[in-house]
Every structure is written in structure tokens, then in C-alpha cells.
Amino acid sequence: MNNVAKNVKAFEDIHSLCVSCLLSSPRELSINRPSAIGVIYESPTRTTRSPWYAQVSNDVTKISLNSTRVLNLHKLRKKAWERGLGFRALAIYAPRIKAKVDLLLSKIADRCGQPIDITEYAMFFGFDVMGDIGFSKDFHMLEQESEHPAIKGVHESMLAIGVLGTVPWLLSMISKVPGAAASFSRFTTWCHQELQKKREIMANEAAMLKDQDQDPRDIISWLLKALNEGDPSAPPGEIAIQEDAPIPLASLFQMRKLYYLASNPNSYRRLQAVIHQEFPKGINDWTYEKNIPYLNYVIQETLRLMPSVPGGLPRLTPPQGLMIDDQFIPGGTIVSVPTYTVQRDERFWSDADAFKPERWESLSTETSAWIPFTRGQWVCPGRNLAMMELRMALSRIALQYTISFAHTDAGKNFDAGVKDTFTLTLPSLHLLFTPL
Ligand code: HEM
């Protein structure tokens, strides 16, 4: 049982003593019930983000989307992000992600038969993809197998507070920690400079009436386009867009799936069989467009067992309070559903701790107690991009390699080293890749 599981087990035991609700401070409730997911997070939106999100400021012109607590402003502002991460934009990003997957696979090929720390290579891959998709900027981290100086800044500051992860509010946390602030400012300075360069490029293009009708090529350009066109969904001011700019780079790519697949060779063999059926001529046949349900099930099952944010996302009940089942929760209470706990509860999942991708054949992510991207107005707008990246990388690995732990303790060490630091921090995962 890893550290996260041990802590959560203690939490679950307390939960089970008090009818699924845990009073974690005088006005905070952690509610381990699937019925609470709809009431707390889904539409119609009855709660708002808790004051915890106001760490940077309450002034809506000076904060990122992720810190915005005013419901109608958040809804409006999110539209620009949804365009920058929507299906039209993803079609533009996909070939560039594929190019990075090719590079990742070539690095794996170079190291065939030798242990590879896939946590590190996934990090290089993830930052390279998000540099490109976020800013049209290539960090060349995979190529050079080392960190870009700007990324070193964010990485060092995250490590200084023991946090690595996929959610934007990490950034506001880091900026408040004295030991982490200096390296973090190298990163934000880089983001602001890139933002400025993008502005100049867009202004030049507008002056030359060039590319006016083309969709933007990266997420930040979608936000700038909204700003330039006076669209109501644009970040409300100069500081707001500066706060938004680093968000794509906080969305760290992780390869937890490979831990579960190396631990469950039958599931990996099934994944390989399914992928080979789809691409009988192997790599020459491979395309990222195919929808392969079992591949989705593997990703969903990993996000169930190891969600990036294991704790509950805190929301504030409205002044009139709200009902969860037959229970009245007074106004001004901070409520949340504990993600890790609800996603591993035997009452809601059979054989809850087991990795069983096939369980998803008869389940839906919308109606199960599955909330790794949260739900409703708050849902992660990057989820389709994240799923696309994961599908591409995983299907290519399954098509070309068998995987195993590099030594007998590699799996155990990984499992024991996973830490709950608001988001999950993953230790090294040493794997062997053997060509098929
Ligand atoms: C497996 C990968 C990912 C996971 C598990 C994840 C998870 C989450 C979660 C749980 C939240 C809600 C945070 C909260 O309300 O406090 C969130 C928000 C957000 N995520 Fe992701 N995320 C992932 C990848 C991405 C990517 C690739 C992007 C691309 C830029 C992204 C952009 C965002 C943004 C902009 C928000 C703020 C949404 C809002 O305020 O409504 N995420 N994510």
C-alpha cells in the first residue's frame, strides 16, 4: 500500500464512521457519496469556489481563470479557453503532438534493453508538447534530454514545495512560497516575454492583413485573439492574461499508465492485441485518429486508481444552503467530494483497488463516481487534449514494445514513492522496453 493509499485508508475509516461525511474543520465537510458529485460540482451550478482559491487576489482583473470565483465571470471567461482547447483547435495541434510522440519513441528506441526512467522522459515530452501547443515554442527537452532554463525554474520551484502536477492553482501556490519564488519568477518572466512576442507577431500580421481568417496556432494566441477582438470571454485585463499565460505549462504529462500495465501483463497483452487488430501493418498503418475503446478504458482506469489531484476540490455552499440526499448543508459551508477515496470505495466499485480496464465496458465516466477532471462549470478544459496525448503515446508504445519493470523492486519503489502533495508527485519509474 503506497503512502497515498495509507493516508486515504485512515481518511476512509473516519468517513465510514460518520455516514459518509467528514467534518474536517468547523465549517468544512468532505462528503464521500456519488450523489454529492452532482450537487456540488455539476450544473446547475449551486456552489462556487471556496475562499482557498482567492490566494492571489479577489480582484477578477488580476487573476487567472482558475482563481476566478464569481460564477458568471468564470463562465464567460472559460469560453475563450474552451475555444483554445476545443476540437477545432485540437485538429491543429494533433500533428504537432504526433511529431513529439515520434521523438519520444525514437528516444525509447535508442535505449532499448536499458532501464529508462519513464517519469523523466514523460516530463520532457509533456513540457515539449505544452511549449508548442501553449506558445508555439519548442523547448527541445526531449531532443537534448535536459530541461530548458525556463522550465528548470518552474520545476525547481515545484520541487522546493514538494509538488508536481497537472492543475493551474499550483502556480498561485508556488508564487507565495519564499524558497520557491526566485526560480519561479524566471519562469513567469519567460512566459510574459513570450506573451509580448506573440502580441507583436499578431500586431504585425494584422497590419499586413495576413492570416486574419486562420485559427490561432496555440492556446495563448486564442486568448490574445479574444482580447484583440474585444470578445467578452477575453481575460479581463493585462494582469489577468499574464496570470493565464503560464497555465498550459502547469499541465504536467505523466505516464502512470505504464506502471499499471507493467504490473498487469494480461491487461497490457490485451491492449497490444486490440491495437494490432486496428493497425495490422504495425507502425506503417498507425494513425492517431482511430477511436479505440480499450485504450480509453486503460487511461480512465489509471485516472481512477491514481487521480492527479487525490483530495477534494473545495466549494462554498450558497447562502440558502443545499440538500445532499436527505441531508441539509447550511449556507457558507465548504464542501468537497474526496476524489481518491470515492474512486476506490468498494460500495461504488467492485474490486475497487484492482486495475481492471474492462470494467469500463459497462460503465460511463459521466455517471460513475469518477471525477479526475472534476465536473460541470469547473471541468478541466484540457481533458480532451490530455486524453489525446495519452492515447497517442500509449498506443505507439503498445504497438512497438513489450514493457517490464527494469528490476524486481522498480514497481514496488514507484508505488511506495508516490506522494500526495495536493497533486500526486511521482517518483522515478524504471522500465525496460523490448521491441516486438
Ligand atoms: C491528465 C491531465 C489533467 C488532469 C487530471 C487535469 C485536472 C484538472 C482539474 C481536477 C481541474 C480543476 C481544478 C480546480 O477546480 O481547482 C483542472 C482545471 C484546469 N485545467 Fe486541467 N488537468 C489535466 C490537463 C490539463 C491540460 C493539458 C490543460 C491545458 C492547458 C489543462 C488546463 C486546465 C485549466 C485552464 C483549468 C482551469 C479550469 C477552470 O477554472 O474552470 N488541464 N484540471
From TrEMBL:
Cited InterPro entries: Cyt_P450, Cyt_P450_E_grp-I, Cyt_P450_sf, Cytochrome_P450_monoxygenase
Source species: Hypocrea virens (strain Gv29-8 / FGSC 10586)
Amino acids binding heme: 380
Presence of the UniProt keyword Membrane in the record: no
Molecular functions per Gene Ontology: heme binding; iron ion binding; monooxygenase activity; oxidoreductase activity, acting on paired donors, with incorporation or reduction of molecular oxygen
Keywords assigned: Heme, Iron, Metal-binding
Cofactor names: heme
UniProt keyword annotation of Cell wall biogenesis/degradation present: no
Pfam families the record matches: p450
Protein's recorded name: Cytochrome P450
